[in-house]
Amino acid sequence: MVSDWLEEDCPSFDYGGFVVGEEIKEARLLGKSPGMLAGIPFFDEVFRQLDCTVEWHIQEGEAFAPVKQCATVKGPIRKILLGERVALNALARCSGIATKTSSLLQVLRQNSPNRSTPRLAGTRKTTPGFRLAEKYALAVGGADPHRHDLSSMTMLKDNHIWACSPSTITQAVATAKAAGGFSIKVEVECQNEQEAIEAVRAGAEVVMLDNYNSGEELREAARRLKERFSGRVEGEERRDFLIEVSGGVTEENVAGFVCEWVDVVSTSSIHQGVKHVDFSLKVVH
Q1: pLDDT one-digit tens code per residue, 29-48
Q2: Is 157 a catalytic residue?
Q3: CB 28 within 8 A of CB 21
Q4: CA nearest 77: which of 16, 32, 147?
Q5: How far apart are CA 216 and CA 2, in angstroms?
Q6: Greatest CA span in the chain, whole angstroms?
Q7: Taking the CB of residue 163, how many other CB atoms lie within 10 A of it?
Q8: What share of the chain in percent tops pLDDT 70?
Q9: CA–CA separation, 146 vs 221, rounded Å?
Q10: 156 close to 179: Cβ distance less than 8 angstroms
Q11: Section 203-229 average pLDDT
Q12: Label partner for 181 (CA 20 to 30 A): which of 21, 25, 95, 237?
């Protein structure tokens, strides 16, 4: 992956690098806006491939205030400059995601009853070709990366249900379980409580309550679902399942969706369109 990044940035010849030569130099990595550091493995690999060394002065996942010298890069000046933009781009993106993730996670923790904090998770709405780095940054920030790809878990969304024959959640779950076997979890996106009940009865391990209009409505739906399948309701089997909340969740409204019956809160707001952390690499002279 890193090799592809470097080739994209320099497909043939670095004309600017020809000017500076091969003298061994040092460059300081400066954090110029507040944030949480994330992306060290990618930054290191860029410069490893260019025969440079990196000495870090702060740790992965550590918050810092500007202006902070985060690392020192040493090697042939031409190669330092060759890797500069690629390394900074990866670090800025990863750090921005980790920073946003950590911030929203703090809100979740502050509003969780009985210290039972739902797991914060990302989504599959990632940048093509950069998913591994973005999922990694979510983990550094304290979130669950969620499924990495379509092979990681079966998620049945509305289009899957509508395209199934017959078009029922029960049939879609049965077909998914026949294909994935016992080792692949099945999650069903549900637009209302009745769909969620059908999904749990069909054997889904996770039900997603998606795009509810209000936090109060969602919390009540989650409570009723967990109570219905607790084994204490006559005529209903006890079933173990997770409730995931998703759809329009942001740092501003997440507190309204938190309750003891919600297991996972997933949102793309912690990785899609987040503000990057500003870094620069300055050669010592």
Answers
A1: 999 999 999 999 999 999 99
A2: no
A3: no
A4: 16
A5: 46
A6: 80
A7: 9
A8: 99
A9: 23
A10: no
A11: 93
A12: 237
pLDDT (0 to 100) of residue 117: 85
- Edge-to-edge order in the sheet of strand 279-283: 53-56, 68-76, 24-31, 279-283
d(CA 208, CA 247): 9
Bridge partners of 144, per DSSP, are 121
Separation between Cα atoms, residue 117 and residue 189, nearest integer Å:
22
Name the catalytic one among 125, 157, 275, 282.
Answer: 125
Amino acid at 273: G
Question: Of residues 117 and 44, which shows the higher confidence score?
Answer: 44
Burial 12-32 (b: 16+ CB within 10 A, else e): eeeeebeebeeeebbbebbbe
Per-residue pLDDT reduced to its tens digit, 131-174: 999 999 999 999 999 999 999 999 999 999 999 999 999 999 99
Q: How many residues does the chain have?
A: 285
User: Quick one: tokens of 27?
Assistant: 């460059």
Tokens of 65: 């205030």
35 touches 279 (CB < 8 A):
no
> What pTM did the predictor assign?
0.95
